[in-house]
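G., the chain you wanted modeled:
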Amino acid sequence: MLIDHSNGRVLESREKDVVVRWLKGGKESGLLSAVEEVTCDMWDAYVQASREVFGPTLRITIDRFHVMKNFQDRLNDARRELQRRLDPARAKELKGSRWLWVTNPENLTAEQRAELEVLKRKFPDLGRPADHREALRRIFQDQRITTPATAIDRLRWWCRQSVRLGLKALEQFNKTLENWMEQIANYVVSRSSNGRTEGFNRGLRAILWRACGMRNFRHFRLRVLHVFG
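Predicted structure as tokens:
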């Protein structure tokens, strides 16, 4: 999905040709003539289209939300990998604790945080990956990191620590991080976020949920345009 943030409009597609056409139109009209940065997820078409229209000096920033979402998915795989190694009795002790592992600590109650700490001590092989996630979050939150070069150093240090955990499920994330390292590190320049776009995404899912799914894309598009303009 492509969002016109200035006018709050939803554009019709994420395909490269559509994105290029819209960006060129905006540039030629003067609306996008001064663009210095584009924030997006890890979708090659967005990057290629932006480079094609605005040239090689454009700063491409991968939204940190998508980086953390990607890592969270891999972390869930790693947790399942570790749980499969446990005997049935110990694995049963973890039943119902998934929410504690996947939620940011600041969004847990004091009681829930205490419960999570007990689980970390009881299951250190699960606790270490959870702490590793927080280490990644701290890199993005550290306001002292103001240059992409510094961010790259910190992220690569984090990757080296990740390797030491010895979890196959995290290997793919490290490759993804390395492949998009420059664009991910650009986040620290202006701390740009795709939060508004994610809000629209959530709204689209709500439309589909209320309709119990929609098979006709034209009808779905009309519904989206009716809701969002």
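The chain has a mean pLDDT of 87.

Shout if anything looks off.
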